[in-house]
Automatic annotation (TrEMBL):
Residues 195-289 form the DUF4143 domain. InterPro entries: AAA_14 (IPR041682), DUF4143 (IPR025420), P-loop_NTPase (IPR027417). It comes from marine sediment metagenome. It holds the Pfam family DUF4143. This is AAA domain-containing protein.
Amino acid sequence: MYDRFAKTRIQQALDDTRVVLISGPRQSGKTTLATEIAADEIPFFTLDEATVLAAANNDPVGFLRGLDRAVIDEIQRAPDLLLAIKTEVDRDKTAGRFLLTGSANLMTVPRVADSLAGRMEVVKLLPLSQAEIMGAKSTLIDNAFKGLQPTLEQAVLGDDMIEIVLAGGYPEAITRKKWGRKQDWYQGYVDAIVQRDVRDVAQIEQLAIMPKLLSILAEHSGQLVNYSGMGGAVGLNHVTTQKYLGVFESLFIVHTLQPWFTNKLKRLTKSPKLHFLDSGLLAALRDISP
């Protein structure tokens, strides 16, 4: 088990915030971390279980009745539950009442009835960083802002660097020793995202085209976003391509990075660059191996 740097922030949030959401891509370690924080002291419910999901959807208010505190996993699968949580935490404003996890950006899920603004803190949990894998917190950024010279404790070069980059940071993938097995995991991951999670966050008319679009996005990673150019290869116009790319962004697969300008208006109006949040997933989509 890896020591996640976000754990301290989550625990601090639970001390002064009624609802805390651990948000990040599927299989990034959210459930493991939430279970670790809850230990045996807080009731744990996962909406990946059919019976639990049915109970939450059929009677959200009844589902929460009698719970002083709870951990609810994969909250995006039962959006109506958020309204019931809002009612509960408005009735009892005790900090740390609900710890939620979600594999989608809740603010982009159409069926979410309430954002819990002012009641909920969101902590992102992305795939493992190299510092987390190595078990040593990086001080590079802190030292840079202090004006200190960067120090190098362990140099990683050549083939070792390539292997680290191509392995990515998903816990399940990096435990596999053979590269073929890592790529198999990533391909299965993409299939699961398209067949299940995309349906949870959006109404997609052309679901079958999503894997092809994701592969095209992989070829454009690191480049300026051109919706017409990316979508044209699969017969999508720029409006539909932008919508579908937004779905992948809400699932924490890709990220559009705004350019840096001293003029803030230019930052908002100039074209962003497209990046994948995990280098291992990107490598698998582009069929790259050491």
